[in-house]
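Example 3.2
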Amino acid sequence: MNEEKGSILHNLGDAVIRTEESIIKYANKAAGKLLECDENELLGKDLLDVVKESYKDIVKRNYERLEEENEIHPYEVELIREGGSVTGEIGMRRMKHEGRSFEILVIRDIDARKRREEVFWEQEERFQAVADNTPDIIARFDEEGRYVYVNKTAEEVYGIPKKDFFWKTDEDLGINKERKEVFRETITLVFKTQEKKTFYSETVIGGERKYFYTILVPEFLKDGVMNSVLSITRDITEIREIDKVKSEFISITSHQLRSPLATINWCILSLLQEEANGITSQQEEYLEQIHGATRNLIKITDVFLNTTMLDLEMFVLNPERFDLLDFTKEVKKEFEKRIKEKELNFSETHDDSISYIRMDKKVLKIILRGLISNAIEYTPKKGKIHFATKKGDGRIVLELGDSGCGIPPEEKKRIFTKFYRTEEARKMKAYGTGLDLYLIKSLLDKIGGNIRAESPNPEFGKGTVFYVEFPVAWENT
């Protein structure tokens, strides 16, 4: 072996030993380090002398195999060293040089790897012990959506033995038929983005409809390569039933409140009519305050009622033919007094080609009322509001912008969730349901529309602008 080769071998990280009929003729530095001795002390020794008794037969057989195969793939042995023993992985190859045959052995210390494997399997056993005792369905999936692990809960819920899940999809098992598409799409998305995803689903199990909330978490190997998705699925059927009862209660309560509130409001308006005699200016002021408070209660009751009707899937759409621009003007009139009180500059831009459309007037009224009301409420005195309608291909685009308090970037993604109000909104107005934008978005989802917010409003340099888009059917006048 020439000096150059000897130098390269001598400084390799893995132990390299050259033997002739198992007698050690060369050992590099790593070999001495592995066996805790000077590498020169190994020269002339039989390799079998540094192999534990229980592994000697394996090494002998592999030397014999080299006569025919020339190469033996790495195998595990336990080697003797001064401090005890070490587990190594030996790869063997027979070579010839200048008419002489010899064996090159590359030995890798795998004690550290084995310890890591032991820790891994210990942690895996702990994970499985916890997973098997949780009421949630826990499973692992590969990129093709095949099960590589399920816990006992999955076995109990689906009535399928754990071993029968392995390497099969929901479709193969004939389960989760109603959610298989969204489940498969979400797993693909997790592998693509390598980010956690969540979704709600429902399916029929044992003739009973069940509702689930699922979290999908990416899992990575130590080299950073993603190899599986951990799925945690919780049965929320009972919670949903409780929520349904709660929604029904709110719906009934809202219905019961609305009638007496409407009566009170009508009576106050009658008293405030000019023809009503004998009312002092102070009494009139009190009645105005009662009228304002009653109007607010009616608005809150309507919001609660509409929200629960949507949640209970009882909101029925009744499309009808009407003039869109005339309708928007009627809705705006409801707020003229408040606009005047705050001295707001309310400007409008409308596409004159928009005429008659067919859609649910109640839905459009809720959307317009919610947006205009919020714009007025959160725009300071003498501020600006701009309302525009535009015509698209079978769609209407509404823009409602203001110069108000705006929405901080970190809060934008939450403004359409139920009961959420921004910090600035709470400062400007102590009370509020936090349901208007949730209700608007839910209604738009129901009719195939969408809503988005931009803050600050590019037109005024501050405030917010909402863009609402929804499909309509055009009709001739």
